[in-house]
Design brief:
Blueprint lengths: L2 E5 L3 H12 L3 E5 L3 H9 L3 E4 L6 H6 L2 H4 L3 E4 L4 E3 L5 E4 L6 H8 L4 E4 L6 H4 L11 E5 L2 H13 L7 E5 L4 H6 L4 H8 L11
Parallel strand pairs: 1-2, 1-3, 3-4, 4-7, 8-9
Antiparallel strand pairs: 5-6, 7-8
Amino acid sequence: MSTIAILGNGRVGGGLATAFAKAGHTVTVADSSPGAAADAVRTAQIVINATPGDSSLQRLAALREQLRGKILVDVSNATIDGPDGLPADLLYPGASLAEQLQQALPETHVVKTLNTMLYSVMTAPATLTQPPTVFLSGADADAKQVVRGLLEDLGWHPEWITDLGGIETARAAEAAILFVPHVIRSTGFAPFAISIAR
């Protein structure tokens, strides 16, 4: 079992904290204050970024020393919201938040995952009517293997997990956020995820 620090205590961070604790991990949730985040990261083996994507880069770049050598699981999407508060465009077109984080934190192993679904599906994938897909992007194979184990702890079956490759593949997964407002407007605020049918 791992020691996990979750940065962000909203619906995403809170849900992940509850699920990982239930799976037997030691979990610390840090609020938005810099001191709390630094303390949580310093004692953790794995750090999960569940902060708002439009400010994640600045928040995490400030923790460069504490994040050195650690696995950073990025589940956020960096978007520009429309008038209705739903994502309207990408903050880093031609790149991704995960790539920006890896560039700013070269000694940290960034892994992108869990960002192509409504937050409730992250910790309860089997509640959907058909198997969903969760993606992994990252440069370090060992870090991705650790994150794969964490996903299985959340209820993701091995065959539902797709490794897309290097961190540059995160831009494809992050671009999927642009589906979200249209899906919500079409079908309502109900749990959903991207699924690759084979």
